Amino acid sequence: MQTKIVGVVIPIYNVEEYLRECLDSVINQTYINLEIILVNDGSTDENSLNIAKEYTLKDKRITLFDKENGGLSSARNVGIEYFSGEYKLKNKTQHIKENSLIEFQLDGNNPYNIYKAYKSSQAFNNEKDLTNFTYPNIDYIIFLDSDDYWELNCIEECVIRMKNVDVLWFDHDCTYEDNIKNKHKKTRMEIFDFKKECIITPKEYANRALSVGSRDISFGWNGMIDFNFLKKIKLKFINFIINEDIHFGIILFASANKIYILSQKLYLCRLRANSISNHDKKITKANVSEYFKDIYETFGENAKEAKNYLKAASRVTTALKLIEFFKDQKSENALAIKETFLPCYAKKALMIKKFKKDPLNLKEQLVLIKPFIQTKLPYDIWKFWQKIKKN
User: Fold this and answer.
1) How far is CA 369 from CA 184, 338, 348, in A?
2) Kind of pairing between the strands at 223-226 and 198-200
3) What one-character-per-residue DSSP string does 4-36 give?
């Protein structure tokens, strides 16, 4: 029986070419007890929002939020906050018309400037249902990027394995477009050499990372999370940075007790230059994101330099947030994650030193980060060897 409710969060930004394939893979899942949140993050293309509305109209499990552009983190956080009951929706539509979209607006707390929320008229029996509409109580949460898609049994395979674990991590496969380099790289699951299903502790994950010479612990679309656990640790994605899944993954794993390893490739990741999580797209004054505009202008509209600064700034922000988190952590699992991963990501923050301009004034924060930088010689040698092999 499909008694557990799974919350699905899908950020949308200029993906009109791929969105139907993504949403078809969701609404046609073999596991049907889903609450699907679409978050249009200020798309500027012609049809992303229209396609999202089309699917919202025909599937009553979907709730669509339309908001100003704030980046991938903000869109994912809308889903987390909605499922956590942090938003109160007030119906703008007063009367139900058959086969129509019901409009809602946020009443009160609206940190991400959500313009409207939409729900199919199929989800309501009468006008009273409109005024009583509220967030669903979900058991698990999972994220999907809107230019990617799932195998149709993805959710079902996850749910049956979620009992007594905090996190499930599955493998993925990739399709490559737009002359993307580094095709057919090993996935992290393959690098970590997890070939069979198993349940591990965060300490065991850290030990495996050491043994294979990797410091990858990012987590965004990589699996399923127990939602009560996520609420308990009060974890969200850091806004206005890139590689936000590093901070999220480290704290998620450091806080967990048990992690399910599922080596099946259930997620299909589309690698392209203009993807929702790829920052190599061509930026111009016309298409620059609102949250990135000030940095872009500070660097004289030099997109490459501005993006590199954002990358460096993101590393500093990530390191500072991690240091703050680990300050009060004493569990064996958390300490293992800290000792294995924090020195690496603290060291990456030093990238900010090479910039003459520092509009976010982050260089002065390096004094807080430097005590956590340690030389991890085996890892440094491994990274050097990887560079040699590429050349």
Assistant:
1) 35, 14, 10
2) unpaired
3) S-EEEEEEESS-TTTHHHHHHHHHT-S---EEE
- What is the signed CA dihedral for 281, 284, 287, 293, rounded to 10 degrees? 100
Give the Cβ contact number of residue 331 at 10 Å.
13
pTM above 0.70, yes or no: yes
Given this model, what pLDDT does residue 289 score?
76
Residue 349 has pLDDT above 80, yes or no: yes
Distance, CA of 220 to CA of 249 (rounded, Å): 7
Q: Strand pairing of 6-12 and 101-106?
A: unpaired
| pLDDT over threshold 60, residue 263 | yes
User: How many CA atoms lie within 13 Å of 151's alpha carbon, on the beta-carbon side?
Assistant: 15
Would you call 72 helix, strand, or coil by DSSP?
Answer: helix
What's the pLDDT tens digit per position in 219-247?
999 999 999 999 999 999 999 999 999 99
By the 8 A CB rule, do 75 and 135 touch?
no
- Identify the residue whose tokens are 């060897």: 385
CB burial of residue 370 (10 Å; 0-12, 13-18, 19+): exposed
Residues 171 and 37: beta-carbon distance below 8 Å: no
Tokens of 239: 């806004």
Token code pair at residue 385:
């060897």
Residue 55: burial class (beta carbons within 10 Å; 0-12, 13-18, 19+): buried
Q: Does residue 239 sit in helix, strand or coil?
A: coil
Q: Letter for the amino acid at 139? A: D
Could you tell me how far CA 249 lies from the centroid of its own chain?
10
Cβ pair 70, 239 in contact under 8 A:
yes
pLDDT(259) > 50:
yes
353/132 Cα distance (integer angstroms): 53
Rounded-to-integer distance, Cα 170 and Cα 44, Å: 32
CA–CA gap between residue 263 and residue 198 (Å, rounded)? 9
DSSP line for 158-209: HHTT-TT-SEEEEEEEEEE-TT-SSTTPPPHHHHTT--S-EEE-HHHHHHHH
